[in-house]
Amino acid sequence: MPPTTTPETLPTSISAAILHLLLPYHRRTDRAPAAPAQAFPHQLRHISEFVRVGAPVVFTLPGFPCKSPNPAKVLGHLPDQGERLSLTFLNTLCTEIERIYPPGARVIVCSDGHVFGDLIHVPDEHIDSYADELRVLIGQLGLRRLSVFDLRDVLGDLPHDTKRALVHEHYAPTLDALRAEIRVEDQTLALYRGITRFLVEDTADHSGTRSALQRECRKRAYGVIQRSRAWGDLIAEHHPHAVRLSIHPQPIGAPKFGIQLLDAPDAWTTPWHSAALRRTDGTWTLMPRAEAAQLGRLMSCDDRPSHFEQT
What we know:
The radius of gyration is 20 Å and the shape is globular. Helix 4 packs across helix 7 and helix 7 packs across helix 10 (210-238). It is an alpha/beta fold. The N and C termini lie far apart (58 Å). The strands form two sheets. Strands 3-2-1-4-5 form a five-stranded parallel β-sheet, sandwiched between helices. The chain has helices at residues 10-22, 41-53, 81-100, 113-120, 124-140, 151-155, 160-171, 175-184, 186-202, 210-238, 289-295, and strands at residues 57-63, 105-111, 146-149, 243-246, 257-258, 275-278, 284-287, 296-301, 304-310. The longest helix is centred in the last third of the chain and has 29 residues, at 210-238.
């Protein structure tokens, strides 16, 4: 006889169905075959907590910090088509969840640019403008299942350097602890290397040698990871029951669920490190601005550079 669905098993089955909608977009650290929902116990547990009480499932997604400071990679310092597509995707995912679970879901975009703006050499005013524009886009596009959370929601109008110092002091792991982890944890080592690579690529005005730049970026990468960890702990403190998403690749079964926002040739590519290109078949991908410019013509939206159309 088939298994009987009881009130006790119903939240579990609904939670698995919700997680199943996310699985096609899982950003993984390997090329292993897709895993079933049961391989993600952390996410199932958190989703079930919401389902059990009939509440909307809340996801937190650290990311959307600011645009890369390298003009060869991006179109400017404000959100463009890459962000519009990514935010729309997240809202659509919530809509799909609502079809099988009426209370639905919402995503809190935890914009983290101010957390490490000094380390990635992006002006705080650019970071403010970027996060403010994210909120404007969410309103303009009617993405009612999304919201933006940043350091201003936690520490108000304190000076940005003060905010960073407070977050680092209260939440960041020590440098010695992080270095020790990188020596033994492959995933943390991959993250360290990925961030170092981004910092090197994002530096457009370095006047010294390549080796000197790499040494400097390796040092800054430790700081970025420390602050990112601190931001993650702060988010967990303010949204303790939320399901944690990540824009970084994550292994199957990890506490964080890596999610692919848009098609890209590299698992580390994000809308804020690239430009969007619409292919001739109507599909979208992300790539550095300089490469996209070789493949198509620049298009504008609201009198600002927006994306490229393949020719």
